[in-house]
Specification:
alpha+beta, about 25% helix, 3 helices
Length: about 180
């Protein structure tokens, strides 16, 4: 066999093809690359384990927005509350309160996820259309997300009270005319 050629049996005959030279390093990458599909690099970065991110975006029945984002190993999360301002409300006098941001510890995150799971699992609360008074949720876990809308109900009011009690949102106010 001439230098740089390999024999490949094709249809019962031998055909000569030129061989592509590969270093040991290239062979190692070629042989090990399927392992990255099974054990992705994102699971470990610099020896530090990285958990898949989790987030919740919630818009209440008045259009106030609340976002939670968890991407830390300790299980904590950050939140941001973006209220409707009177100049953006349909009445011109409604205010969702003051903007807020802060941190939840791991225990608070688990409690929030428990309340969310209870709402999400109750199919009787779901509606197709986003109307005034409904709650819109988008949950992201890793690279997957899901969205759902819940009707105005005692369960949704209880969730809003839970958020208010924990200081993650402000109490709505009406701007006094004048």
């Amino acid at each position: 066999m001439p230098n740089g050629a390999l024999e490949f049996p094709l249809a019962g005959r031998a055909e000569k093809r030129k061989m592509i030279p590969m270093s040991k390093k290239n062979w190692a990458w070629l042989l090990l690359s399927p392992l990255f599909l099974i054990f992705p690099l994102s699971q470990s970065c610099g020896g530090e384990k990285v958990q898949p991110p989790w987030s919740l975006s919630y818009s209440d029945g008045s259009g106030n927005s609340l976002r939670f984002a968890q991407d830390r190993e300790d299980g904590s999360a950050e939140f941001e509350y973006l209220p409707v301002r009177p100049e953006n409300s349909s009445t011109g006098i409604y205010s969702g309160g003051e903007p807020r941001q802060g941190r939840l510890d791991a225990k608070q995150v688990k409690e929030l996820q428990k309340h969310l799971g209870k709402l999400e699992s109750d199919a009787s609360l779901r509606v197709e259309d986003r109307d005034k008074g409904t709650g819109a949720f988008t949950v992201r876990e890793g690279d997957k997300s899901r969205s759902f809308i819940l009707k105005n109900s005692p369960a949704l009011s209880e969730f809003n009270d839970f958020l208010l009690k924990n200081g993650w949102r402000s109490a709505p106010k009406m701007k006094q005319p004048g």
